Amino acid sequence: MATLILTPWQAAARAGLAWAIPNASADINTADTVLACRNDNEIRPFYIHSVMAGSDAVGELVVHRITAAYTSAGTAITPINLSDVDAVTSELTCHGDETGNTQGDIVGKIGVPVSGMREIVYNGGLILQPGHAIGVDIVGEPTLNWCVVLGYFEIEDAA
């Protein structure tokens, strides 16, 4: 009998621990963050699978760590569970058009074409420890931009 081998991303999705965090913003201020996401789980790290973004103008997708404690501000974003498991809550605090953070280390940067999209794939290699956060910026002058962060919480049997 064949054994199905799952990646940690697939195992987390099956267990209801994988999330999509989408945001679309119209004409945000230059200094604002398109999407900020903080791991509020007290024990488990949150693994970023990938970040996708696009805009209506040439720009640059910048993924950065957020430094120090901050009060997340902006439009609340509800993460979407990628499974049909009903009882699981995300334990992520996410805001669009976010204004309360300070940019830390840049962990990804790529050009975004007009009316196109780009994806930075981390395959779980970008890790948000409990209390840590990332921000997604689109540098340029778009009047419309969007992004999606895909990530998951670790489960013990994800092998």
Spatial separation of the terminal alpha carbons: 18 Å
- Count of DSSP helices? 1
The Rg value, from CA coordinates, equals 16 Å
Structural class: mainly beta
- Number of separate strands: 11
Strand content: over 45%
Q: How many domain modules?
A: 1
Main beta-sheet annotation: 6 strands, antiparallel
Write down the overall geometry.
globular
Rounded mean pLDDT score: 87
Unreliable runs? none
List the helices and strands in order. HEEEEEEEEEEE
Question: What order do the strands of the largest sheet run in, or round the barrel if closed?
Answer: 5-7-2-10-4-8
Helix content: under 10%
Descriptive key words:
mainly beta, 6-stranded antiparallel β-sheet, 159 residues, 1 helix, 5-stranded antiparallel β-sheet
Question: What's the helix and strand layout?
Answer:
Elements: H1 8-14, E1 18-26, E2 33-39, E3 46-55, E4 59-66, E5 75-76, E6 80-81, E7 92-98, E8 103-112, E9 116-128, E10 133-140, E11 144-153
Antiparallel strand pairs: 1-6, 1-11, 2-7, 2-10, 3-9, 3-11, 4-8, 4-10, 5-7
Report on the structure:
The chain has 1 helix and 11 strands. It has 159 residues and is mainly beta. The strands form 2 sheets. It has a 6-stranded antiparallel sheet, with no helix packed on it. The radius of gyration is 16 Å and the shape is globular.
